[in-house]
């Protein structure tokens, strides 16, 4: 079996729960085809660089797959007929990166930065 990274962009007007249900559907398709899904990351609603089918935003998801080529082809076929999917890309990789992706790592780093108490007038020693 080969290793793949797969990114899906879904329409902006579906809910986050529907976007995650799409991820679950993709996982079931891969497992039915004899593969496994090592990681699923939902990146949330993000701005698109340019409009795609009149959408300015999209729900992004990243999947790390260990699957045969037939299962990946079937998944891509299902995505091509799904009206909620704007774009998808599957890339074959040498090894799967199971760590947190840079998109989510940056989001966590930014969240930590905003949660830190900021120095104000109360912190000054007079």
Number of helices: 3
Helix proportion of residues, in percent?
25-40%
Cα-based radius of gyration, to the nearest Å:
18 Å
Shape: globular
Major sheet: arrangement of strands:
2-3-1-4
Number of beta strands: 4
Low-confidence stretches: none
Taken in chain order, the helices and strands follow as EHEEHEH
Tell me the β content. 35-45%
* Separation of the first and last Cα atoms: 67 Å
Structural class assignment: alpha+beta
Q: Profile the largest sheet.
A: 4 strands, antiparallel
Mean pLDDT: 87
Description:
The structure is a single chain. The N and C termini lie far apart (67 Å). The protein is of the alpha+beta class and 126 residues long. The mean pLDDT is 87. 35% of the residues lie in helices and 39% in strands. The chain has helices spanning 16-32, 69-81, 102-115, and strands spanning 2-11, 36-52, 55-67, 85-93. The protein is built from three helices and four strands, in the order βαββαβα. It is globular. The chain has a four-stranded antiparallel β-sheet with strand order 2-3-1-4, covered by helices on one side.
């Amino acid at each position: 079996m080969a290793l793949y990274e797969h990114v899906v962009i879904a329409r902006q007007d579906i809910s986050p729960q529907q976007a995650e249900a799409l991820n679950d559907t993709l996982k079931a398709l891969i497992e039915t085809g004899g593969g496994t899904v090592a990681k699923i990351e939902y990146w949330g609603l993000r701005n698109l660089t340019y409009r795609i089918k009149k959408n300015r935003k999209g729900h992004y998801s990243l999947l790390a797959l260990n699957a045969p080529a037939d299962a990946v082809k079937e998944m891509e076929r299902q995505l091509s007929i799904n009206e909620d999917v704007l774009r998808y890309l599957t890339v074959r990789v040498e090894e799967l990166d199971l760590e947190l992706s840079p998109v989510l790592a940056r989001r966590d780093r930014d969240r930590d930065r905003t949660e830190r108490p900021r120095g104000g007038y109360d912190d000054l020693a007079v």
